[in-house]
Write the structure tokens for this entry.
Amino acid sequence: MNPPMNRRENEEKMAWLRAEIRRHDDLYFRRAEPEISDREYDRLKRELADLESRHPDFVPEDTPTRQVGDDRQEAFATYRHRQPMQSLDNTYSEEELREFFHRLVRLFDREDLDFVVEPKIDGVAVCLTFEKGKLVRAATRGNGFEGDDITRNVKTIRDLPHRLAGDRHPDVVEIRGEIFMTNDAFQRINREREEDGLPPYANPRNLTAGTVKLLDPKEVSRRRLRLVLHGLGHCEPRFFDRLSAFHETLGRWKLPRVERYRVARGIDEVWSAVQELDRLRHDFAYATDGAVVKLDSIARQEEAGSTSKAPRWAIAYKFSAEQAETVVASIALQVGRTGALTPVAHLEPVQLAGTTVSRATLHNKDEIQRKDVRVNDTVIVEKAGDIIPAVVEVVLAKRPPGSEPYRFPEACPVCRSEVIRLPGEAAVRCPNLSCPAQVRRRLRHFASRPCMDIEGLGEAVVDQLVERGLVERITDLYDLTPDQLVQLDKFAEKASQNLVGAIDRSRDRELWRLIHGLGIQHIGLAASKDLAAAFGDLDRLAEATEEELAAIDGIGEITARSIAAYFSEERNRELVRALREHGVRTRDEGAAARREGRLSGKVFVLTGALPALTRQQATEWIEVAGGRVSSSVSKKTDYVLAGEEAGSKLDKARKLGVRVIDETAFRALLER
Ligand code: IVH
């Protein structure tokens, strides 16, 4: 038992939980890179809700227990849901499910209530709007009230007809569902990524969340998203009196609906339908993590109403994740490219959800401390639809006597430098940029396909180069000779010459590859391209202030800060000089020259089909004249060049007051 906490401790604990939940919300909803399983997340939320109910005087308006997450991103136009998209209350226990039922029994004063029991799909929520049977809009949940308009991406989904079948349709109907990806498609995409030297996605849901927000519908189409619909939003005129009728109508409209739903009367029937789903769900095309129990009668749903966050007429019963008990043999730390230390538990191997698990992530320093995981502890590990197993909790009753709390090292396990923790960051870092672990990761990144694309410089070669002290800094690569390389394992003369040749050729890569290859925190491929286009010169980028950086389309505040911080270090400025001295191209001459043209500095966004020009031609013309094409409309856009069937970008341009021109006006602009 924990000792009772005093007021201040409670207050601090709640503040910590709120900050942590917000951080996980951001990781989950915006970046689609969750660190913890849904179940662990639910536990944090429950702990907070529990404390808040005991100390209501400390609860701020904007506490995450009263809000849903937010997935909105700047690049998309906003769609206001006609009826808010709410979240669901969750439960993991039969008892709480029964309580839910009895609350409704008390409300309606009768036991014979009908419920629909259906799978809870582990996908990405979407709201489709049909007007007179025609699909007009698809939007993400966003903050529940407003979401991102992802119509063009959703229209690539083959399951989804753009017109409802049959002839009786409401004037306007919002239909809610989940976008998902089958395991097969997920594995195919990951295989391709690994062939390209990119890190694999963690699970289908993350990949789906990232995919619906891609800016290129062609790429979305390639990823074969799928869809299943389960919910009714706003409907005009009123069309349904029962949810079960709605489900049936989805079938008649030829829309993809859940494989299985049942109408159950009373809690015992509901409970057996829930258990039946648990047995059947593994055969569904999508991942499921629970059953949703909803009142069938729409009139009763309305009467029951909802809290600020979730309806009172529905609840999600979450199936238990597959768990296993095992022992922590040791705790190791992994050092990432940016020096982040990730603790990993090495376990006595145990069978879990069909695979042998011998490692599990412990996320970060706070998580180890919160769970108080120690070496030799017996722990519960869980795999909740995710690929990476996590340690959920310690079985305290089995803790061996005399065990000591895990002491997070003060020094990097690889280079012994004293570790640091930056304010507001969960990660503890090794600050030593020469740490061999970091050097290895940095070099691998630099050489990878989406960066300098150096053929033959894979992981095994990089590891040897670092181990033998042949390479410490990126620029050392450019000093390597075939004689040095033949010393490496399995490296004959031919291979050595090939590698030296490949390294040499990388001197002339495009600037964005070099920028990406530096491995600056938060700078991915898209940002690297934006930066290369905006500056055309690594030296100019290195001198840019945070404000100048943030003013660039596509570059947010966090990214701007990260770049400025990176180049404020003498060591990194020195690297830029050294790269140039080693003959690596640090300027994009083309871009610099282009910037001086007629459209110099102007940012264009293209939308719709132009009468005579292809997208590619228009892009070339703009770039030759010194302008730039961006994929999304923002305040920094100068012109939106719109053709026929222009989509949401046009709406957004109008909203922001950005100038919209057609092809004729565009030609005039060029000839001016
Ligand atoms: S009903 C107002 N039914 O789970 C009713 N939601 O955790 C709320 N979800 O936001 C939604 N399968 O995106 C409902 N069969 C199902 C569902 C489902 C998955 C998602 C949905 C919701 C989230 C809440």
In short: The pocket of 2-(butylsulfanyl)adenosine is lined by residues 86-88, 118, 120-121, 125, 178, 230-231, 292, 311, 314, 316 (CB under 6 Å). The longest helix spans residues 7-30. Residues 511-594 form a domain with the DNA polymerase; domain 1 fold (CATH 1.10.150.20). The chain has six domains: 7-66, 78-318, 322-398, 436-508, 511-594, 597-671.
